[in-house]
Amino acid sequence: MIYRPNFMHDPINGPGNLMDFLDEPFPDVSTYEDFHTIDWLREKSRDTDRHRKITTKSRESYWELIKGLLDAWSGWVVMLLIGMLTGTLAGVIDLAVDWMTDLKEGVCLSAFYYSHEQCCWTSNETTFDDRDKCPQWQKWAELMTGNSEGAGAYVLNYFLYISWALLFSFLAVSLVRVFAPYACGSGIPEIKTILSGFIIRGYLGKWTLLIKTVTLVLAVSSGLSLGKEGPLVHVACCCGNLFCSLFSKYSKNEGKRREVLSAAAAAGVSVAFGAPIGGVLFSLEEVSYYFPLKTLWRSFFAALVAAFTLRAINPFGNSRLVLFYVEYHTPWYMAELVPFILLGVFGGLWGTLFIRGNIAWCRRRKTTLLGKYPVLEVIVITGITAVLAFPNPYTRRSTSELISELFNDCGALESSQLCDYVNNPNMSRRVDDIPDRPAGPGVYTALWQLALALVFKIVITIFTFGMKIPSGLFIPSMAVGAIAGRIVGIAVEQMAYHHHDWIIFKNWCRPGADCVTPGLYAMVGAAACLGGVTRMTVSLVVIMFELTGGLEYIVPLMAAAVTSKWVADAFGKEGIYESHIQLNGYPYLDVRDEFTHRTLATDVMRPRRSEPPLAVLTQDSTTVEDVEALIKDTDYNGFPVVVSRESERLIGFVQRRDLTLAIKTARQKQDGVVSSSVVYFTEDTPQAAEACDPQPLKLRRILNLSPFTVTDHTPMETVVDIFRKLGLRQCLVTRSGRLLGIITKKDVLRHMAQMMNQDPESIMFN
């Protein structure tokens, strides 16, 4: 069914050199143009040739042996550098976000660069009961008017909160728009597309790295419903791309570069969540397209170095990698699986609602005047967010602090409203009953505020994600789930207290222990909502237990994650990142998509019956002028080479870029090559042709003698599988060795879209 004329490259005529008349290959050959797909097989072949050459040379002298060892170790050096820079940037971002978030409410008089928490740490006048209040920290109204209470102070603080938020968001969107348009959004859909073999020049550049880092701090500090976790993956991949340019092994081979970027993505998640193992699994499950075992080890090392660097900086001051670390002292019970699964259902429904609402809004942004005013959109959304967020203490604070409070267990030292329980020592029950912990007025107030915060977060996040500023989705999704989970947890806790004699609550507790831990429900809800939006499973559970230290609670997390995925998949298979890839028309062949239609290669190949014949080159009768005219009149990435136009017998395939550079270089370096010179792709040039004028041009060495071919009756199910697993750019269709047509990756994607009743023209790029 699959015809491969000559899979192994001829050592003489392989891709190692460029032309007969050049000793060294021209430097730009085999590089790719912007918005094109790489040829994975070709990159693999080039790396094998390079490795073989290094191995051969290493036997010649000790110096060459040392160079070979340095080449072998360069991968680990790159991982070390990526981990150190990513961890450092993450620590700086965390510290800057803490300070700038608190700056909206007040300032530290002893040192203006201290956040509220750091300011009160250094104070000698802070008491335990009022540990959030210290003379050194003053709100803006108190600083300006000397009065911290009353309606006037409240209005002034309100106004300044909104003003700071608008300033931060305006700076963020302006910097992105002027200096680095690619620094907006999450970055994960584009990273997935790049790792699948697509070229987007500048997306991982130095300017993008710098602007994304600065604007990420501004965007998160503005109080918008977004997180820094997704953009940190983009930042880490920018670091990876930066260090790739220092080593020719990676800078000259796009396939090897993508192995480094996969490891960099793992380092990004490692520092975003303080979850090194979760980062490796995230890269494997969610982001990477090609993930060999060697990349797994290097990802692990990069994630380790990044986490170690972040731990050394200690941005949260708690000797932990994350803000959310909690320790629960109560086990979970089998009966609690019911509310955990219900939270999973909620997570799946929220994921479906968010994806559909956000994609509809982003599509509207693309197709209406809204997309022409990104600065105005960001300012309006920021203004609405700040106006609605300030009155509610649970939306006013940073989302990370909110999640941290929702995850926390209510110990004796907690001063949160959520822990305002009534403790009456005079009341007595049997020793095997539930401890007497009826909810106090603070808990009921907190529940109303959390319910309002839940509705606010659900709605505003739909409109925030996808704006022209760095915006991550992990933290807002976790916040929605954590709020819902905490509300459910308190409800179950109070039900267990007031109806302790129900059969489901009997024999739950050890004497003196709390039966229900509402913080655990918040953690499970956060996992469920994040899973519903992203469709992660294994990496999600590992990230959550690394994030919180809740190793004992893996089963509830697994139950919620699987349930949310099942529920969300019932309404649509694509997660948020795949949906944005489709919306932007990126040429991404998802390995999880199933193609079950009974079509053949002949139904998809080009040219169709109504189209002009396939543009081909002949092996010994095409002139330089003909080749240049063909390149000028068409925009194809390459051309099949045949014996003659009459026989259409396939010889090989030549890349457009290689052909252009070869002719350009030949005109400069080889005497006698003119427009009327005949181009030969044959092994030997006829003696008569060499003797005559003008001189012939021999381009055998840029010819790929083993292009991937299938017969016209190959099922498209097989063709799609080949494109996925081998990362092909194009595939030639033959019958008995005679060329019939060509199938490109774009043709495959268009055909798949057509079979799913989608617009085939939505695949915009090559």
UniProtKB/TrEMBL annotation:
- Compartments (UniProt record): Endosome membrane; Membrane
Q: Which InterPro entries match?
A: CBS_dom, CBS_dom_sf, Cl-channel_core, Cl_channel-4, ClC
Q: A cellular component term (GO) from this record?
A: Golgi apparatus
Q: Which UniProt keywords apply?
A: Antiport, ATP-binding, CBS domain, Chloride, Endosome, Ion transport, Membrane, Nucleotide-binding, Repeat, Transmembrane, Transmembrane helix, Transport
Membrane topology reported for the UniProt record: Multi-pass membrane protein
Which family does this protein fall into?
Belongs to the chloride channel (TC 2.A.49) family.
Task: Report what the protein is called.
Answer: Chloride channel protein
